[in-house]
Each structure stands twice: as structure tokens, then as C-alpha cells.
Amino acid sequence: HEGLDPDRTLMMEIDSVSPNMLPAEIRNYLAKFLFTGDDVFRKVGTLSGGERGRLALAKLSLSDANLLLLDEPTNHLDLPTQEVLESVLSNFPGTILLVSHDRYLIDSLASQIWEVEPQGRSLQVFRGSYTQFKAHQLKMAGMSDQNVPVGADVIHDRSSSTQQKSSEKTLSKYELRKAANRLEEIEKQIQGLETKQKIISDELANPPADSHQVLQLGEDYVSLQVQIESLMEEWSELHEKLAE
User: Does a structural domain hold residue 122?
Assistant: First the structure.
């Protein structure tokens, strides 16, 4: 929001970056960013954080930039502003380099995922959506189903997904974000359960002398496996929803 002048009105801010627009055109343009009626005559200094974010996006859309570097762009934005941001970025004709924890935003925009190794020694480039990237990771770990495209050969079939969307109920923004967050929780839970299984496997490799302890370890291992399978079933259902 640093480029906004608190003493200017919204109309003046847009006019400063696009002086050839007529007043009526500016009003119609601002309406796309949820500023209607007398809102266009408000001064920037009276706007809330979310409103300033929308105004900044409106100005950004009129710039000649062909490369955007965005670091957590949805932080501190209200839901309407997040949806406007997604719409603006979806129509941006240039290149976007995005760093974000907003899984839904990444999934709706990204055509490539760049994974930096924990030690920062290498960069892996995956062609596909974030959902496909996570599915690929799970598949490489031996947990994913066989229908998910793998690695650099991933090509998102927009035509088939569009046909499927037209015949099925479209999830709301809230439902999609909720599903994406749950998907991430499941992946963490599965990793935790597998870690526990590994510990039990190590113990069974050198079993204790007490047969009751061995039996208990076996039962614990089976219980963990049941939990993993249940979570994987839920993961598959959520993955299908997000992939639609």
C-alpha cells in the first residue's frame, strides 16, 4: 500500500496511473474492485486495510508490469479482497513469482511449483498444480493412488475438468479453502503415524523377551495402519474435490 496517497480520493488514485480514462470509466473500473457509489470519492486515508489492498490491486492492474514478485499477498486481506486478488492475478498477462501459504490461491494460479530443498542446495521444478505436486510427493512415498500424473510430464486437462465442473455442483470459496486446509492436516497426520510405525518396526526388529510386549507392539502397528488407511481414503476424496 506504499504507493497510495492518503490525501487523494479513489478517483484521483486511478487517474494518476491512467489519465486517459474518463470519470465514468474510472467509476465502472473501481466497481470491479467492490468500490461503488460515493465510495469512489472517499480519501485513501479513510480506507480500511482490506479496502486499501483492493485499491492497490486496482492500480497494479493498470500498470505496465510484466513480472510480479508476491510474498504472502493474501496476508491481512479480508475474504472479498482475497477473491478480487485471485481474479486480478488470474487475468495478469505476465509472469508471477508467488510465495504463499495460501494453498487455495497457489492451486488456482500456479502452473509450476518450485521446491527448494531444506538445505537450500537444489531447486526442483514441478510442472502442474499444487494439488498435483502434493499427490506426486505422496506417490513417491508409496501412498498415492495410481491415477495421479507424475512429475514433469503433468499436463492439466482443463477441457475435461471444465466439462466435469458443468455437470457437478461447484464448491464455494470457503469450502475449497476448508478442503485444502484439511488436506494439509491429513498429510501431516499420516507422516506422524508413519513415524510411529517406523519406531514400532525398529522395536520389532529386536523384539523384547516379553511376548505380551511383542503382541502389544503388533496390535499398535495394526491400529496405526488402520488409521493411515482411513486418512488416505479421506485424502483421496478431498483430492478429487480439489482437482475438479
Answer: no
